[in-house]
Amino acid sequence: MTNAVKQLHSKLIGDVGTTSIQARIFHEICIMAIMAITVILIINMFIRVPNVNVILIATLLVIGAVYYSSKFRGNLKSSVAIFTISSNILLVINFIYNSGVNGPTLLLFMLSVVFTISVMPGKASFFWVPLNACVVITLLAFEYYYPQTIVNSYETRAGFFIDTASSYLAVVACLVIVLSYFIKSHQMEKMKAINASTALKEANDAKTKLLSILSHDLRSPLNSIQSFLEILIDMDLEEDERKAIKKSLLKETKNTQTMLFNLLSWTKAQMDGGVKVNLVKLNLYEVMETCIEMQQTSAAEKKISIRNRVEPHTCITADLDMLKLVIRNLLNNAIKFTRNGGEIVAESKESDGMGILTLKDNGIGIAADN
To answer: Are 31 and 13 in contact (CB under 8 A)?
Structure first.
């Protein structure tokens, strides 16, 4: 039942995604006005105000016409303009034939101002709002100087109170509708801003993470390449030695290129759709050997030996790029904080069906409070 009502409401008012907030407010007010006027017409039959009923019927026809024009023909601007002009004319007539200041017309004029501000474009409201004020002031002056022209439409005191109360309720209902639309619109815009801010922060965090990973992982191989080049330039080497260094240099360059490609691909995947894990069966010993080989030059500069004591047939299920990233970071840190001539040992063991990789060094260590 609730879904059916929501679907009907959406059809009558307009879909949020395709209909502007001004159009939806206009359609909502038209529907509410049609319903309210229908109820007031029924009430007026009992309190006997025939002059008012004629005005209400005319108003009902105008509202129905402009609603149809806006909702089904897409003529919002012209419909709003016609509605505003017609409502002001009908309110003037209602003021004269429905007890003037003693009737509910001034309340309806106030509602007209709210409606105008809500659905009119910004510049247009600067014309219609002062016009509304001028009309009201003119009517008040007219009644003040020519009170005999104002028709007292209420035959009983009860009729006056019923008409005033029903008009007040109609005004309140329309105000609630307008305010609820603007509050919802504000909340939607606020959520869009929050989501955009969150997305921007995530993008910046991802970029920072990428730069951190690149600077950390490229430092060691680039240092190795630099060392090879310095040896080639500064030292007088035999041809065989030169060939060996060139071969090592080429190998180091290819390894660095592969690592950089994998890093960029992995980081792009994280930025595009969060963490994506590609689990495959790996030989941990071989992965460890590859990572150690890339760090050998940095380790050699400090005369640090790296020993791979992982069992040669140790197999695990992991993401290759992530695993290499973790191992490289561990090796980099171990080399950085291990004293000259130190030793780094990689070992592995199995516990509860999980593979545990351990890197041990004789560096300065980490304080217990850290």
So the answer is: yes
Question: The tokens of 101 are what?
Answer: 């200041």
Rounded Cα–Cα distance for residues 158 and 97 (Å): 18
Spatial CB neighbours of 186, under 8 Å, sequence gap ≥ 6: none
State the residue for tokens 């004629």.
Answer: 54
**Tens of pLDDT, residues 136-191:** 999 999 999 999 988 887 777 887 888 788 778 877 877 787 778 777 777 877 88
Please give the DSSP secondary-structure letter assigned to residue 304.
Answer: -
Q: How many Å apart are CA 321 and CA 327, to the nearest integer?
A: 10
Q: What gap in Å lies between CA 331 and CA 359, rounded to an integer?
A: 8
Map residue 221 onto helix, strand or coil.
helix
Q: How far apart are CA 183 and CA 199, in angstroms?
A: 24
The per-residue pLDDT for range 74-126, each reduced to its tens digit, is 888 888 888 888 888 888 988 888 888 988 888 888 888 887 777 776 677 78
Interhelix angle 76-97/50-73, nearest 10 degrees:
180
Look at residues 127, 135, 141 and name the one whose alpha carbon lies nearest to residue 110. Answer: 135
DSSP-derived pairing of the beta strands 279-283 and 354-361 = unpaired
Beta strands in the chain (DSSP E): 279-283, 305-308, 315-319, 343-351, 354-361
Question: CA–CA distance from 52 to each of 60, 94, 95, 110, 257 (Å)?
Answer: 12, 7, 10, 19, 86
Identify whether the C-beta of residue 318 lies closer than 8 Å to the C-beta of residue 354: no
What are the tokens at 253? 């360059």
What one-character-per-residue DSSP string does 131-184 give? HHHHHHHHHHHHHHH-GGGS----SSHHHHHHHHHHHHHHHHHHHHHHHHHHHH
User: What is d(CA 223, CA 355) in angstroms, rounded to the nearest whole number?
Assistant: 32
Query: Model pTM?
Result: 0.48
Count of other CB atoms within 10 angstroms of residue 232: 14
Two tokens at 239?
A: 């041809």
The one-character DSSP state at 101 is G
Q: Spell out the domains of the chain, with CATH numbers in brackets.
A: 2-198 (no CATH), 277-370 (3.30.565.10)
Which amino acid makes up residue 306? I
Q: Contact, 181 vs 127, CB < 8 A?
A: no
